[in-house]
Write a structure and sequence with these properties.
Protein name: PTS system mannose/fructose/sorbose family transporter subunit IID
Largest sheet: 2 strands, antiparallel
Number of helices: 10
Radius of gyration: 25 Å
Keywords: Membrane, Transmembrane, Transmembrane helix
Strand order of the largest sheet: 1-2
Low-confidence stretches: none
Distance between the termini: 59 Å
Oligomer: single chain
InterPro entries: GatZ_KbaZ_carbometab, PTS_IID_man
Pfam families: EIID-AGA
Length: about 270
């Protein structure tokens, strides 16, 4: 299959990638920025306005990753948009969701917590000795990885994605990739719910004795009982309720939901429920 995207198209995507966080919002995080970055590719791939509209709607969903991971995902997503058929487009978003978590962790580990301290320490040693080379060295070495790495990640993600998809046109590889991405995405979301969302209750249930009818010291801690059955059950329950409300209203009342949850949390905390 002849490639539709040129080097110039990939270059424009790379330039827009560097401003992806400007339209950051609390509903889709980088979703709008990702759409803006991939728009040049979508306009080239879908000359029909209705197809273009559907493709753009596909990329208005929640998305968030490390900026260097964004580059690889952006290139790979453009390849999938170009090389897949109409019945395979549903596998694109699960792939994005499945990759954004692992690549965010990898980007933070390698760039933010490894490369930045290394070049920062070397640059600081020059600066402390009175040399102007220090900040210049850090700026250049950081951006060799940060900026140049993003560009080649976009190119590599697109080209390898095209090659891979062209070699597997007659197989169910897209369905398998979509399934694997869904599994990874669910694992990431599940771990985030358990580690980030903390909903616990101090409620206790007094149990009367069958013999004397007195409460005595028989008390059951509700949170301890729930943890034995399913750890982080309340966190999961709250997440599910919020998800259902947002899905039912298509995210239109996200701000009102946040304020309502804050007020409800204060009230429940005051009465000792949370």
């Amino acid at each position: 299959m002849e490639q539709k995207l040129t080097q110039k198209d990939l270059w424009v995507m790379f330039l827009r990638l560097n401003t992806m966080r400007i339209p950051l919002n609390y509903e889709t995080l980088q979703g709008v920025g990702f759409l803006r970055a991939i728009s040049p590719a979508l306009e080239k791939i879908y000359p029909d306005k209705e197809d273009l509209r559907q493709a753009m709607l596909r990329h208005t969903v929640f998305y968030n990753s490390h900026v260097n991971g964004d580059a690889a995902i952006l290139g790979l997503t453009a390849a999938m948009e170009e090389a897949t058929g109409p019945d395979e487009k549903e596998g694109i978003n699960p792939l994005k969701t499945g990759l954004m978590g692992p690549l965010a962790g990898l980007g933070d580990s390698l760039v933010k917590f490894t490369w930045v301290p290394i070049v920062g320490s070397i640059g600081a040693s020059f600066a402390l000795s009175g040399s102007i080379i220090g900040p210049i060295f850090m700026f250049i070495m950081y951006n060799v990885v940060n900026i140049v790495g993003r560009y080649f990640a976009v190119i590599y993600g697109y080209r390898k994605g095209i090659e891979f998809l062209n070699e597997n046109q007659n197989s169910d590889i897209i369905h398998r990739i979509s399934t694997m991405a869904n599994v990874v995405g669910l694992m990431v979301v599940g771990s985030l719910i358990a580690s980030v969302i903390k909903v616990v209750t101090p409620l206790e249930i007094a149990v009367k004795s069958n013999v004397t009818g007195d409460v005595g010291g028989n008390v059951i801690a509700v949170q301890e009982m729930l943890d034995k059955i399913m750890p982080s059950f309340l966190s999961l329950l709250v997440t599910f309720i919020v998800y259902r409300i947002l899905k039912k209203n298509q995210g239109k009342h996200a701000a009102a939901l946040i304020i309502t949850m804050m007020v409800l949390t204060i009230i429940l905390k005051y009465f000792g429920v949370l």
